Amino acid sequence: MKDPATIIEYGVPIDPKVMVEPPDPDTLELEPGHPGLGDTEYVRRRQDLFALCRRHRLETLGPPPIEYTPEETRIWREVTPKLDELHRTHACGLYLQAKDALGISTREIPQLRLLSQRLEHETQMHLVPAEGPLAYRTFYSYIAKRGFPVTQFIRHGSHPEFTPEPDMVHDCLGHVPSLMDRDYAEVLTLVGRAAVTTPDPLKVLALKRFSWYSIEFGLIEEAGALKVFGAGILSSTGEIPFSLFSKDVRRKPFVTDEVIETDYDPSRMQDHLFVIPSFGWLRSEIEGLVQRFGIPVV
Ligand SMILES: [Fe+2]
């Protein structure tokens, strides 16, 4: 089963076998088949936000305040209540507490500048405005310095459940709340520091797989129940029930040596998932992996 909403990659999608990627685009590029392509008003809005967020990123100005349009707010109010209902039942406790603590609501699109200030206070993480997908080295160089790149644009309103690229719904609802957890923040930071430090593409690939099967598509066992913490799952109304209940999904304990050897396909729903016991455990696993790889992170 294919669900384009799951085409969510750390940075610009690349072929993990050859590790070749394009540079950061300097103008807006909507993929062929993007639902907003024929909508000149949408394209113009995306171009404006692209230029604004890119400038704020390059000049390290932090997320710009955005005055969202009624249409963007309408889309947020259509998509996020459905996700929130699923989160209340299926998301892990840490995520739910953090989402409430951050005051992320289903009514108004949050201002990332304010969320970033709160994160800075709690876990010394901050949000970096991203105009769109970034090259993986650019992406990792930010998280190595405790900055998480986030988009601020909203998907096209013709198919509110669908986005062919990470947007505000994915980033803000999928990633941002978990950044309030210290162990989660340390996992992310260490992956970034290791990825930008090692010159070995195979070690980078292993780190990408570790991230994919945890930060993006991780499950966690909580009080004997299976819960979701991966951002790619949390931001998709299709992926949440699929990940937990589909007979087509293999769910296995997270064994790092197996995870880093397991390929993934970002263009389809994920039928191979791994379950961690806790964020603290995940942190010790990435610390062990980086040490075993001999990557000299400080
Ligand atoms: Fe993501």
Can you walk me through this structure?
The protein is an alpha/beta fold and 298 residues long. It has a single domain (4-12, 61-292), classed as Phenylalanine Hydroxylase (Orthogonal Bundle), CATH 1.10.800. It has twelve helices and six strands. The chain has helices at residues 40-58, 70-90, 93-102, 112-123, 136-144, 168-175, 182-197, 201-216, 231-234, 239-245, 256-259, 279-292; strands at residues 126-129, 147-150, 219-222, 225-228, 250-253, 272-276. Helix 11 links the parallel strand 5 and strand 6 (272-276). 44% of the residues are buried. Bound molecules: fe (ii) ion (FE2). Fe (ii) ion is lined by residues 8, 166, 170, 174-175, 216, 231-232.
Give me some keywords for this one.
298 residues, alpha/beta, Phenylalanine Hydroxylase, 12 helices, binds fe (ii) ion
List the helices and strands and how they pair.
Layout: H1 40-58, H2 70-90, H3 93-102, H4 112-123, E1 126-129, H5 136-144, E2 147-150, H6 168-175, H7 182-197, H8 201-216, E3 219-222, E4 225-228, H9 231-234, H10 239-245, E5 250-253, H11 256-259, E6 272-276, H12 279-292
Parallel strand pairs: 1-2, 3-6, 5-6
Antiparallel strand pairs: 3-4
Helix pairs in contact: 5-7, 7-8, 7-12
Bound molecules: fe (ii) ion.
Fe (ii) ion binds next to helix 6 and helix 9.
